[in-house]
Here is the input.
Amino acid sequence: MAADTPVEYIKHHLQNLTYGKLPEGYERADGTLVDEATWTFARTAQEASDMGFMAFHVDTLGWSLFMGILFLGLFRFAAKRATTGVPTGLQNVVEMTVEFIQGVVRDGFHARNPLIAPLALTIFVWILLMNCLKLIPVDYIPSIAHALGLEYFKIVPTTDPNGTFGISIGVFLLIIFYSLKVKGIGGFTKELSMQPFNHWSLIPFNLFLEILVLIVKPISLALRLFGNMYAGEVVFILIALLPLWIQWTLNVPWAIFHILVVVLQAFIFTTLTVVYLSAAHEDH
Amino acid sequence: MNINLTLIGQSIAFAIFVWFCVKYVWPPITAAMEARQKKIADGLSAADRASRDLELAQEKASKELHKAKEDAAALIDQANKRAAQIVEASKDDARKEGERLIEQARAEIQQERVQARDALRAEVAALAVAGAEKILETSVDAKAHSEMLEKLAAEL
Here is the structure.
């Protein structure tokens, strides 16, 4: 691994496996020039950064897809075999999760919409599974990936802002959609412009404030999750830099603490999504 | 920490997962849970009903038992009365029969006494005639004196 100094080790661990488009005439890290615009794996962090928007984090996408399919596969399997008799094993776990989500939705959502509960379930379990990847020791999977010839490999999708913003933008679109659907364009505009100060001269101020509030919702959702996971990841990497014999004294408590954090962050994301969507359904 | 197409890819994946969950995961699980809930509720109400039925049945049974006991007591009472009546009646009969027998015996005794007296009277008359014959050494014409003898016998 390209990790000779602690700083390099940390940077290396925080770099995603990026597949993107390098522009024509770009000078790569080894000094070669790119003849024409090509799609390729980035070999350095600088290359990944220079690829700009036209790039994919293969590890983030791959692991989040894997976790999503794992979630849906497990739950679909349980759903197919669900009996009305005494539930056992997997069905118990699935039903407990579903009941928990039903409780969250009952408490936080005050309109009627059959989409909200399954949406909340998807968000909760998916984020929980993605967060749980963090409990795998930081060097295991990247080492395997390195042996397979992949320079960078970051397995926790929620430590990538793309991963968290991808979800929160989906939530944001739903907020806009339901606001428009329930309140109509007029109602939504009125809500944005006539609150909190119901006077025509303050419409610009209201608009500014309300749109800010609206936009802050997905940003806060994504950044809260990302910030917590990223910070935790950095601490795990720092602990991994210590001598081997002392690592467990810090690693174990931090990992135990993170069992709480991964669940809590998934729960917060879910609850806030439900609350935001509930607000979007409220017609004044 | 670059923002790139991953963002859009993640959003698309999210949308597909939500769609799949809404369509294929959520409904069967909640349906099964609701069905079980209903089953349990039905079971509980059936148990309630059964225990109520049992209570009613027990009440009815105890009522029946009570009634049967009363009937039996009435029957026994009646039978006792009847028996007493029969005993009384037969006692009565027996007493009557006894009296009748005694009466009959008395009548017979009376009759025999009358017969014996008549016989004795006849004997006495004959004896008297014989005595008188001996005394008189003459025969007394029994026929001629029978009227007087009979008068004598009647006086005895």
In short: Chain B touches chain A at residues 1-11, 13-15, 17-18, 20-22, 24-26, 28-33, 35-36, 39 (CB under 8 Å).
